[in-house]
Amino acid sequence: MQRAADVLRRSKTIVFFSGAGISAESGIPTFRDKLTGLWAKHDPQRLETADAFRDNPALVWGWYLWRRHQVSGAKPNAAHLCIPRFQDAGWEVSVITQNIDDLHERAGSLDVVHVHGSLMGAKCFACHRPGELTPDQLRVSEEGQWIEPPRCEHCNERLRPGVVWFKEKMPEDAWRSAVRLVRDCDVLISVGTSGVVMPAAGIPEMALAAGAAVIHVNLEEVGWVGADEIMLKGSAGVVLPELLLAVGGGDNVTA
Ligand code: APR
User: Fold this and answer.
1) Is pLDDT of 37 > 70?
2) Coil, helix or strand for 234?
3) What range(s) does the Deacetylase sirtuin-type domain occupy (predicted)?
């Protein structure tokens, strides 16, 4: 913690790179958690594919509507809330997230790049144009249900969630912004990501190659940690407020 605080004190720009672990304490399950209820017999990694949508659009659309519903009932936790506080304390702060929830924005972060898209958007499966959803089309029961997706107003094909699925490319503008931020930062703080899904998982290596220091915050050791890397083991909602306190960034942050 002391070493991480020293590195931060010598830096001006911080990029936070977040994964599902940062939202776990807000009650959003990570990708390695087992699904429950209606979804128990499904593998989330299989549901997040164009093939699954082609095979059963109502299952996949229902699953994403249910996740959107889950996120809208969740609140940002201390880890999300800490990030804009680093900005208040004088650092230049940006967020690159693999998460499709909007908890960073709701915690007050202004500069958030979503490299895997967002649960809040929809687009046409065929013509890719964005689609608007009415409140009626967003309604879903507590435990979730299969729901036939609405149709695109331009080509009448099905709308799909505005997220990046396995085997799909990331949105080019988001990826370009992410690379620019990573190459220009002094410190990258990687929070709650297993680092297994490329190319986003390569972001810490990209930061190291550009001369930045990398701080990992995770419940578990995240592989080999080199000379310019620091591992802060623990839950993000505890470790980030401690780090903020250690650099003199004001009172303790709680959700
Ligand atoms: N605090 C810190 N770390 C945590 C916490 C917590 N409270 N809870 C879990 N973690 C860590 C886990 O130890 C794990 O390393 O968060 C990580 C979550 O890993 P994943 O579920 O694999 O999430 P992520 O890395 O975001 O996945 C990347 O995979 O399925 C795709 O597109 C999806 O964006 C996602 C990508």
Assistant:
1) no
2) coil
3) 1-255
pTM: 0.93
What is the distance of C-alpha 126 from the center of its chain? 26
Strand duo 130-131 + 117-124: pairing: antiparallel
Q: Which CATH superfamily is domain 29-73+118-163 in?
A: SIR2/SIRT2 'Small Domain' (3.30.1600.10)
Pocket of ligand 1 (CB under 6 A): 19-21, 24-25, 30-32, 45, 98, 116, 192-194, 196-197, 217-220, 235-236
pLDDT tens track for 184-200:
999 999 999 988 877 77
Separation between Cα atoms, residue 69 and residue 101, nearest integer Å: 10
Question: DSSP letters of 167-229?
Answer: TPPPPHHHHHHHHHHHHH-SEEEEES----STTGGGHHHHHHHTT-EEEEEESS--S---TTE
